[in-house]
Structures are given as structure tokens and as C-alpha cells.
Amino acid sequence: MNEKNSLGLDICFKDEDNPVNLFKEWFKKAETTEPNDPNALSLATADKTGRPKVRMVLLKGFSDDGFTFYTNFNSSKGKDLKENPKASMCFHWKSLLRQIRIYGNVVQVPDKEADEYYNSRAYGSRIGAWASNQSEVLESRKSLDDSIEKFKKKFSDEKKVPRPPNWSGWRLVPEEIEFWRDGDNRIHERLKYVKSNGKGWKRFLLNP
């Protein structure tokens, strides 16, 4: 028997007033079915002229406060978000035939939170954050290798690698979250949540 929620959607959509709770359920399921990186998402940004860019990044945390990822603030996405602090995320899990889109404004995570995450990374990843001028033109692969070796010598104690001042996290504070499930004959199921006056959430169905 194909169970439905109160809106007539598949029971996997549940009946949550808070979309973050539903995201948690879908993400937990994706962690058991996706062969690689269930936390991978496409992140769309735009500069101050409106020129769009999109790339894959990894989600590193989420809560009612928002969805967090980390980057070099001098990277292409970092520069975009400093100029235009609006962004959109899209998770697509082929194994589940599900998708989630999230739109909102971004804010920088607190330094303490960024430090804690940075210190949890592997030594090589922490060194890489110092060695790479992310998104800048690379003269040669050797020059990057040389830079890595230079910072390995500078920070030879693996327990004492400070976080670069231009490396931190962004948190996307959601204003809209849409859940999508594949349907036969392209009659997909779509459920959208929109923040109501910056407080609670309203939910409604969308045509496929």
C-alpha cells in the first residue's frame, strides 16, 4: 500500500511544519544510499552585476540556523558572496530520485565555529588552505607543490596549524526550501516551504 501524507504526497514527505526536520530525514536516508558524498550540493551565486556561477561544494553542517559550507573567502564564490550575499543550493540524490532546493541569504560563521571545523580537518587539508590561492591562475602544478612544501615546513607541527584569516565558513539562512520526488510520466511531487514574515513556515504544493 502506497501511504500518503495529509497533502496527498508520498509518505516520505511526512507532515513537518519545519522543513529542516524533513531535510534531516531525507539527508539521513541519502547517507545510506548514495555511493559517494551524500553531502554534495550545487551552490549557485551571482556577482554584483548579476553574472551567475554554479559549482559543487560539500555541506558541513545544518540546523534551524542554516546550512553551512567552508571556503577561501578570496575564491570566486567567496568574492561573489561578499558582493551579493544571496545564494541557492541544490541537492540531487540519484539513488533516491529526490532533490532539495534551498534559497536564502548567507552570513559568515563565527570565528570559534570556523576554528573548530578547521582543526577537525586532516593535516594536508589544513596545509592546502594556506598553500592554494583558490580560483587564481596557477603558473604550474610545480608551483603549487612547492607552496605546499613551504607551508609544511612552516607548520611542521601537525597539531599547530592556524586557520588562514581568509578561510572560513558561510551559512545559508533559508527563506525557501523545496522538496522534489521523481514521479512516473514526469508527474513529479513537489512540496515548497516559504518563511512567513521571517518566523514560521508556510508549505504548499507545486505543479510538476
Question: What's the short story on this structure?
Answer:
Helices cover 27% and strands 34% of the residues. The chain has 208 residues and is of the alpha+beta class. The radius of gyration is 20 Å and the shape is elongated.
Q: Could you list some keywords that capture this structure?
A:
single chain, 208 residues, alpha+beta, Pnp Oxidase, Chain A, nine-stranded antiparallel sheet, elongated
Descriptive notes:
With 208 residues, the chain is of the alpha+beta class. The protein has a domain of 144 residues: Electron Transport, Fmn-binding Protein, Chain A (Pnp Oxidase, Chain A), CATH 2.30.110.10. Helices cover 27% and strands 34% of the residues. It contains 5 helices and 9 strands. Strands 1, 2, 3, 4, 5, 6, 7, 8 and 9 form a 9-stranded antiparallel beta sheet that branches. A hairpin with a 2-residue loop joins strand 3 and strand 4. Helix 4 packs across helix 5. The two termini are 23 Å apart. The mean pLDDT is 95.
